[in-house]
Task: structure prediction
Amino acid sequence: MAAQQQLYDRTAEDLGNLVGLEHVNLRINNQGLASEFYLSGLGLTRDPFMFPGTNNMWVNVGKSQFHLPTGTPDILRGVTGLVVPDRAALLERLAQMRKPLAGTQFDFRESNECVETVCPWGNRINVHAPDEGRFGRIVLGMPYIRFDARPGTAQRIARFYREVMGALATMVENGSGVSARVQVGEKQYWEFCETDAPERPYDRHHGQIYITNFSAPYRRLEALGLITQEVNQHEYRFKDIVDLETREVLFTVEHEVRSQTHPLYGRPLINRNPAQTNRNYIWGGDEWVWGLPDTVGPSGRVADPLKARKAPTIAKRRAMRMQQQAM
Result:
């Protein structure tokens, strides 16, 4: 008797043409305040290799980033969603930011779903605990951006992304209203949520996505007259999402579109373990290791990677490598 064949839902692995949300770009006017919020408060990591001066600041969050160039502050028209591994530690860090960020728009509060934070300039960032059912393998990362869209635009926005960008885009209806959900990577989404709130004027913020079929969307965007910048061989940009019948502008946000042949595609990002301090220092524990196996929980991951069964072995190996490199 032949063995029963295992059946899989192959469509669950589809990404469409958009394969990664790499960064969101927001101008700031004070790197000190940004360091307190993004690094000390959220527990993220400043990229040690790119832009070490005061004209720009790249902040790593798993495989994604915030790009924070110096200038008149930008306000994203919506909310950025993050996942961090330890909610309790996050709340402790944020509480310690009340004094250094006093006099700014910084704030935070707990909800059942997440920790809702506001950066010193008013950008909203929702921080979630890992949830394999919702965020997949992400225990440190940027799973979504929710944009505030005008009523009656979501369905046409979804069509734009399907037909122009080759993306997987669906409609979502729940107690919060109607949204277009566009997949931009593995368990990463841009959501355009209809709201009656007054639309904030667009400034200069942008999001960056990687795309597999680079040329077909370009030709469609060019035919629609939407290309705003020819950056280089590996990148172009556009801002307006339009109704494909009437050409009405439905939403504006700059898209930095990169090919998978872009030199920065897949660049490994360093993510520190924010629990590591000079008082409880462990050799080999500086960098966040988010894929360690363990038997705690259905996801096989633990809140603190240094507590996983294999952590001592990994730490020892790293310590040995560090010592050899120092010799």
